[in-house]
Structures are given as structure tokens and as C-alpha cells.
Amino acid sequence: MVWWFSVPKVVFGEDALSDLERLVGNKAMIITDSVVHSLGYPDRVREILENNGWSVDMWDDTIPDPPVSVVKDAARALTDFAPDWIIAVGGGSVMDTAKAAWILYEHPDIDLAAVNPLQPLDLRQRARLVCIPTTAGTGSEATKAIVIKDDETGRKFATSNEELTPDIAILDPEFVKALPKTLTAYTGLDVLTHAVEGYVSVWKNDFSDTCSIKAVTMVFQWLLKSVRDLDDLEAREKMLVAANLAGMSFSNSQVALAHSLGHCMGSVYHLQHGLAVGLALPYTIEYNAAESKEAAGHYQELASFIGIHEDDPVKASREFAMKIRELQREIEAPTSIKDAGIPETDFQDGLEKVVDFTMMDSSITMNPRDIDSEGLKRFYQYMFEGKPIDF
Ligand SMILES: NC(=O)c1ccc[n+]([C@@H]2O[C@H](COP(=O)([O-])OP(=O)(O)OC[C@H]3O[C@@H](n4cnc5c(N)ncnc54)[C@H](O)[C@@H]3O)[C@@H](O)[C@H]2O)c1
Ligand SMILES: [Fe+2]
Fold first, then answer.
1. Domains of the chain (ranges, CATH numbers)
2. Strands 145-149 and 156-160: what pairing?
């Protein structure tokens, strides 16, 4: 079987942004959101390009967890301006909006819900893509994935295609300097979840493993530091690199159950992506390790890189899950749905819907252990109470 490991060109380090001066082209559209715009980062991109004689436009109407309608608005702006480069400056929501709008800019008739890994999209006929993340984070600047929300049902759906891997990812630590404490913590948990899920996914491989191992050790070394001292630029930069590595890992393996649960808790209970997937992660480790010897072995191996040396794979996995919860407490992230502020009545009211959505989520098929609707219902109840999984 032939496999690919696809990554963008990655530019990193102090003043990474200056790499824009090497870009060959003459017309760029910056895609961003109003918060990031107000922080001034997109204007710095604009300035560099305009100083080099480019014509630049900006569209800043992305919203968190972007729905198809917003993507269509962005695509209209692209069509009107007709750029040869799209430059996304923002978190995962901005980068995913840019990626999805790029598809529609190149091929207006494509149905986003029908995008899949197997059918060619024939991109890069009109434009190419640079991603500059402002969260550390989703790693979307390194991935072939997009996560978009259906306007009618409110369901977030994830899909991927090789061609959606950005051409260039610019990791400039200046761009994550202003990330507030809670977002630093939550988006950092997204990094950990990508790295761990990429390491146990049924499509894991030697390349993705390498990225996962490094990303997991970096998260345990730098996340707490970056949350405790928001001015620690070294910690910020390391987390930005870890996010990118974890993105490379899961983009070339896959995410699994924690992401299915996270997407659906985002859709139904409106929890932030990193908070939701991070909350789910330790429970999925306990669940998978209990029945899948292979998964338990992978968790055991990964845990050894952060100092958990335990001969029994299931015990090692449970210790790993507890270590993750400990980190969550240290960075003040919730470890249960209840702690995340969802009242019990809202939780119960949304339970059927969240279970239905989870069964439909594409990442669930990548999980090393199967789960059905009844199992999911129980799973969600354990996550609500904060009870480690024992089934
Ligand atoms: N495509 C992928 O590979 C991939 C992977 C994981 C998650 N996602 C998706 O990405 C989205 C989440 O992205 P996210 O976690 O980066 O958050 P986000 O992009 O939704 O941003 C969250 C909030 O933070 C603000 N923000 C962004 N950068 C900031 C900064 N530097 N300073 C202050 N505020 C800032 C934004 O304006 C927004 O209000 C979800 O929709 C998730 O499903 C995509
Ligand atoms: Fe994620």
C-alpha cells in the first residue's frame, strides 16, 4: 500500500512573518475575524505585502465554529477580489473558513458536505494558501482537515482532502502573544488531544508517531508555563511548534473518539473546541485501553515519554489519563461537563441529540474500540459527572 505524509512548508521563529517578502504573486486576500483584526496582526501582513507592491484586500467576518453560510460569504469576497494568494490570519475557525472558502472560490458548485479524502478537488488553479495561526492550537495550518457547521442542524462536521494542506504555514510567536489565559489553556489541550489521538488512530504511521511523541512531551513541558506566565515568549513559541507538529500527526493519521465527542459537545452544548476535546480525552483513553490491547500498548508507549513507566499497559493508560486530568486542573480547565458550566437540565435535554450527532461524526470510525448509541449515552453521563470510565 502507498502512503503519503503531507505537510506545508513551515516557517518558524522570531520574525517568521518576514518570509512573506519572498512570496511570488501580486494580489492577496487576508481572511481573519474581527477580534484578530483588532489586535493588528492582519494589518502587519497587509503592510509587508503592500510595501512589495501587492494589491491586498481583507475580509474579517469569520466567527468561531464557522457555519457554511459564513464560508459562502468569504467565498463571495474571494470571487469579487480574485486574489492569487489567500492568507488566513487567526485561529482554527479562521483557517478552516479560509480553506473551505478556497474550495468554493476555485469551484463554486462543490457541496462542502460532500468533500472527502478520496475525490480530487483540483485546487490551486486560481490561488494558493498561507496560514498564520494566532492560537496554539488546532494546527489547522498544517492539516488537510476542515471543520464546518451545518446552518440548519447546528452539527459540526469534519472532513479532509490532501489538497487542503496549506502551501505555507508561518509560525510567528508574536501572533500568539495576546492569547488570553483560558484560550491558551483550552487550545493547548487541543494540541495534546491531536497528538494522543494521532498516536492510537488506526491509520497511525512512523511519521505521525514521531510528531506525536514530540508534541506530547512539549505540551507537558510548556503548556503549564505558557498558562501561568502569559509573557513567557519561549513557552508561547514552543506551544505554537507543538500545535503544528500535532497537526502534522493527526492530519496524516486521524483523530478519533475524543474529537467526535468534542465536535458534538461543541455543537450541542457550545463548548470551545479545545476545552471539549481535552475534557473527553482521558475518558477515551480509559475506554479504549480497557478492551483494545493494541491501543493500551500505544498509550503505554506514549506515556513513557512523559515519565510514566508501568509494565501493565492498562494500568499505564489509566495513569496517563490521570496525568492528563492533573494537567487540566493545573491549567484550570474543566475535567467534567458539569465543571464546564453545563447545568444538568441542559445536559439531559441535549443528551439524545449529542449522542445522535456523535454517531454521525466521521472521526468515530477511526477509534480503536467501537461504541454504540447506548454506550455513548453512558459515556456522556460519566463525563458529565466526572467519573473515570470503568466499562
Ligand atoms: N482544520 C483542522 O485541522 C482543525 C483542527 C482542530 C480544530 N479545528 C476547528 O478550529 C476551531 C477552533 O479554533 P481555535 O481553537 O483556534 O479557536 P477560534 O479560531 O474559534 O478562536 C476562538 C476565539 O479566540 C479569538 N482569538 C484568536 N486568536 C486570538 C489571539 N491571538 N488573541 C486573542 N484572541 C484570539 C478568536 O477571535 C475567537 O473569538 C473549531 O471550529 C475546531 O473544530 C480545526
Ligand atoms: Fe482538535
1. 9-176 (3.40.50.1970), 188-385 (1.20.1090.10)
2. antiparallel
pLDDT digits (tens, 9 = 90+) for 126-146: 999 999 999 999 999 999 999
Amino acid at 43: D
CA of 278 to the centre of ligand 2 (A): 9
The pLDDT of residue 202 is above 90 = no
**Ligand 1 within 6 A of CB of 289:** no
pTM, two decimal places? 0.97
Reported as a single tens digit per residue, the pLDDT across 312-354 is 999 999 999 999 999 999 999 999 999 999 999 999 999 999 9
Pairing of strands 55-62, 145-149: unpaired
How big is the CA angle at 226 (ends 305 and 146), to the nearest 5 degrees? Answer: 80
221: Cβ contacts below 8 Å, ≥ 6 apart? 238
Nearest ligand 1 atom to the CA of 33 is 37
Cα 134 to Cα 177: distance, rounded to the nearest angstrom: 8
Q: Report the atom number in ligand 1 closest to the C-alpha of 99.
A: 1
- Evaluate if residue 226 carries a pLDDT over 90: yes
> Would you give the end-to-end CA distance of the chain in angstroms?
35
pLDDT tens digits, residue range 260-286? 999 999 999 999 999 999 999 999 999
Coil vs helix vs strand at 141:
helix
248 CA to centre of ligand 2 in angstroms? 12
Quickly list H helices, the chain. Answer: 34-38, 41-51, 68-81, 92-106, 181-200, 206-228, 233-251, 257-269, 273-291, 293-304, 313-330, 344-360, 373-385
Query: Which residue type, as a one-letter code, is found at position 355?
Result: V
Positive or negative torsion for Cα 281, 342, 183, 96: positive
For residue 275, the CA-to-ligand 2 centroid distance in Å is: 10
Nearest ligand to the C-alpha atom of residue 252: 1
